[in-house]
Automatic annotation (TrEMBL):
Gene3D superfamilies: Helix-hairpin-Helix base-excision DNA repair enzymes (C-terminal), Hypothetical protein, domain 2, Nucleoside Triphosphate Pyrophosphohydrolase. Its cofactor is [4Fe-4S] cluster. Transmembrane segments: none annotated. Adenine glycosylase active on G-A mispairs. MutY also corrects error-prone DNA synthesis past GO lesions which are due to the oxidatively damaged form of guanine: 7,8-dihydro-8-oxoguanine (8-oxo-dGTP). It comes from Flavobacterium pokkalii. This is Adenine DNA glycosylase. Residues 35-186 form the HhH-GPD domain. The keyword Plastid does not apply. Its EC number is 3.2.2.31. CDD domains: ENDO3c (cd00056), NUDIX_DNA_Glycosylase_C-MutY (cd03431). Belongs to the Nth/MutY family. Keywords: 4Fe-4S, DNA damage, DNA repair, Glycosidase, Hydrolase, Iron, Iron-sulfur, Metal-binding. Binds 1 [4Fe-4S] cluster.
């Protein structure tokens, strides 16, 4: 009870003013939760507002073209979230008459909705007593109770969820879930938390034992793969260019890009120009080629670091299927390519 009372008092005094906290509408809460997976609130908020404006209801989102959804999502990353969001909206609109499931168990059946998101919607929209367990919750509970359970283990979530459920007031689970996540996001942060001003500085076990920086325990290390992308921006006599859709499963699925030459390492002008000559991107004779960036742009994803170079090619005649600069800006691109286009 001491933990709960102190937590709620802190939350009511320090919580951020966020639009999805002013509603129990499951559509808005679902949107916000999907957007905030792997994304900071400051980054996700403008996207949430744009989506709600473009698609006020789940029916509006369901009726949209996937490319429109991906274009609005551009820059938020983890694009499978946007594709799943769109498919789930179509399912809810057509199969469920626009009505979201009203309990945790049924919410879990929706595409792209896992334990955490289902718990958030169930508690925030329907007041179901089910705890949310995300990185913030792992951190707060492991430090406060000095829990050295490895959170990378499959059983950890069940253990932390059981503890959170025990601490949660069953008549108002929503405020508890909001409060513990907000506390982890603003106060009990991963590195260098300001424990001197923490409401729990007299009762936090990790602080008493000088273990704050050691918790939570997480053993699994992500192996990062390096990839080397050479994007060929072709320009014909009418200043039209070529793009292609990424149709292979993996990063940036269904987004657009310039013709790509992927290499095993960073390559120079001679190598790339020879590779262009042996590829069949276009039939037009090449007039000139130049590097747009001498040094690779390193674009970091969760499991991959992409080393990206852009090359500009001028060719004779007109390109087959060439598009204008204005048309180019209508396509959904990975943010690194979008930024390059905007800088041109």
């Amino acid at each position: 009870m001491i933990f709960y009372n102190s937590l709620i008092k802190w939350y009511l005094e320090n919580k951020r003013d966020l639009p999805w906290r002013k509603t129990t509408n499951p559509y808005h809460i679902w949107l916000s939760e999907i957007m905030l997976q792997q994304t900071r609130v400051a980054q996700g908020l403008p996207y949430f507002l744009s989506f709600v404006e473009a698609f006020p209801t789940v029916f509006d989102l369901a009726k949209a073209e996937e490319e429109q959804v991906l274009k609005l999502w551009q820059g938020l990353g983890y694009y499978s979230r946007a594709r799943n969001l769109h498919k789930t909206a179509q399912y809810i609109a057509t199969e469920l008459n626009g009505v979201f499931p009203d309990n945790y168990k049924d919410l879990l059946q929706l595409k792209g909705v896992g334990d955490y998101t289902a718990a958030a919607i169930a508690s925030f929209s329907y007041n179901e007593a089910v705890p949310v367990v995300d990185g913030n919750v792992f951190r707060v509970l492991s430090r406060y109770f000095d829990m050295d359970t490895d959170i990378a283990q499959a059983t950890a979530k069940k253990e932390f969820a059981a503890l959170a459920f025990e601490l949660m007031p069953k008549d108002n689970p929503a405020i508890f879930n909001q409060a513990i996540m907000e506390f982890g996001a603003l106060q009990c942060v991963p590195k260098n938390p300001d424990c001197a001003v923490c409401v729990f500085n007299e009762s936090c076990a990790a602080l008493q034992k000088k273990k704050v920086e050691l918790l939570p325990v997480k053993s699994k290390k992500v192996k990062v793969r390096n990839r080397y992308f050479n994007y060929i921006m072709v320009s014909d006599a009418d200043e039209k260019t070529l793009v292609q859709k990424r149709t292979a499963k993996g990063i940036w699925y269904n987004l657009y890009e310039f013709p790509l030459i992927e290499t095993l390492q960073e390559e120079d002008f001679e190598f790339v120009s020879n590779a262009v000559a042996t590829n069949s991107f276009f039939a037009n004779p090449v007039i000139s080629m130049q590097a747009c960036n001498e040094k690779s742009i390193v674009h970091k994803l969760s499991h991959q670091h992409l080393h990206i170079k852009f090359w500009k090619l001028n060719v004779k005649g007109e390109l087959v299927n060439g598009i204008t600069k204005e048309e180019l800006k209508q396509y959904p691109f990975p943010i690194v390519i979008h930024n390059f286009i905007e800088s041109e």
